[in-house]
Design brief:
Blueprint: H1 3-25, E1 31-37, E2 46-51, H2 64-73, E3 77-81, H3 92-101, E4 107-110, H4 113-117, H5 120-133, E5 136-137, E6 141-147, E7 150-156, H6 177-187, E8 193-197, H7 204-207, E9 214-217, E10 235-236, E11 240-241, E12 248-252, E13 255-259, E14 278-284
Parallel strand pairs: 1-14, 2-3, 3-4, 4-5, 7-8, 8-9, 9-13
Antiparallel strand pairs: 2-14, 6-7, 10-11, 12-13
Length: about 280
């Protein structure tokens, strides 16, 4: 066999091997990811649906695929950890999603960076949509919520990119990100199990300075490319290559953080590989 022919055979073999690895990884149907958390002082189980980084992506006609997936899991409460809206894709799918869930479940929301990247006018319009459907936005705020006979604290802070709209929007909080953390920590000092909803997982060390039991985040999109069992994520915004907090469960002292890989699909610049969009279900037991 000639050297040239051998070269092309090797190239063909390499191509086949790469295709055999990559093609299955492009499968991007919705995944349900479950976490079970041993919550101190809670006797009756509470089920949370964590929805992050929807970016107004399409999940069937009027978002029925996502809505039905949530209904099948029978959550007690929905927590939205930012980027439910997008700064490019119109808000239609986000509105369909909200229409489909707000009358069934209490819904809590914090901002992500893309809401702010939309600009002050569009940001105000998106916040007005939340108001319209009765979604509770937590902007440096907390609420004591009673679910299944158990009372928990639900805290929320704005994304650090809030400065991009500053005081140009009536919906903007004047407190900085760090000031909001301090505020919700002080307000929720009542002995209840305390959850913080925040878009950014890379700020985990900031959260551990306070008395939050559980932190729920998104933003990292699962690191976009994964090698199951080897690489949890290749690249995430604000973390760079090989992100520490791409997706999953993380612990530091008393604080546990769960990071969703998010629901973004058609708006991503590069395809997700072995990184299916996910709906996260958290059971507090």
């Amino acid at each position: 066999m000639s050297r040239k022919k051998m070269k092309w055979i090797i190239i063909l073999i390499v191509f086949i091997v790469l295709a055999a690895f990559i093609v299955p990884g492009l499968f991007n149907d919705l995944k349900i990811q479950h976490y079970s958390v041993n919550a101190v002082n809670i006797s009756n189980s509470i089920r949370i649906a964590l929805v992050t980084d929807l970016h107004s992506c399409r999940y069937g006609e009027k978002e029925q695929e996502l809505i039905e997936a949530i209904d099948e899991q029978k959550p007690d409460i929905i927590m939205m950890a930012g980027d439910i809206f997008d700064n490019v894709i119109p808000d239609d799918n986000t509105e369909y999603f909200l229409q489909g869930v707000v009358e069934k479940y209490p819904c809590y929301y914090v901002t992500g960076n893309h809401e702010y990247w939309s600009g002050s006018s569009a940001f105000s319009e998106k916040m007005a949509v939340l108001e319209k459907y009765g979604v509770k936005r937590l902007s440096g705020e907390f609420e004591a919520v009673t679910v299944n006979g158990e009372t928990i604290n639900v805290c929320g802070v704005d994304d650090p990119d809030a400065y991009m709209v500053a005081s140009k929007s009536a919906y903007q909080n004047d407190l900085s990100f760090d000031e909001q953390l301090i505020r919700v920590n002080e307000l929720s000092d009542n002995g209840n199990y305390t959850i913080l909803i925040s878009h950014r997982p890379e700020l985990f060390k900031n959260y551990t300075k306070y008395d939050f039991d559980l932190v729920l985040c998104g933003h990292a999109h699962g690191g976009q490319w994964r090698i199951p069992g080897i690489l949890n994520g290749l690249y995430a915004p604000n973390q760079g290559l090989f992100p520490k907090y791409a997706g999953g469960e993380y612990n530091d002292g008393r604080t546990k953080m769960i990071v969703s890989r998010g629901l973004a699909r058609e708006n991503t610049r590069v395809p997700r590989i072995y990184d299916r969009p996910e709906l996260v279900i958290v059971d507090l037991n």
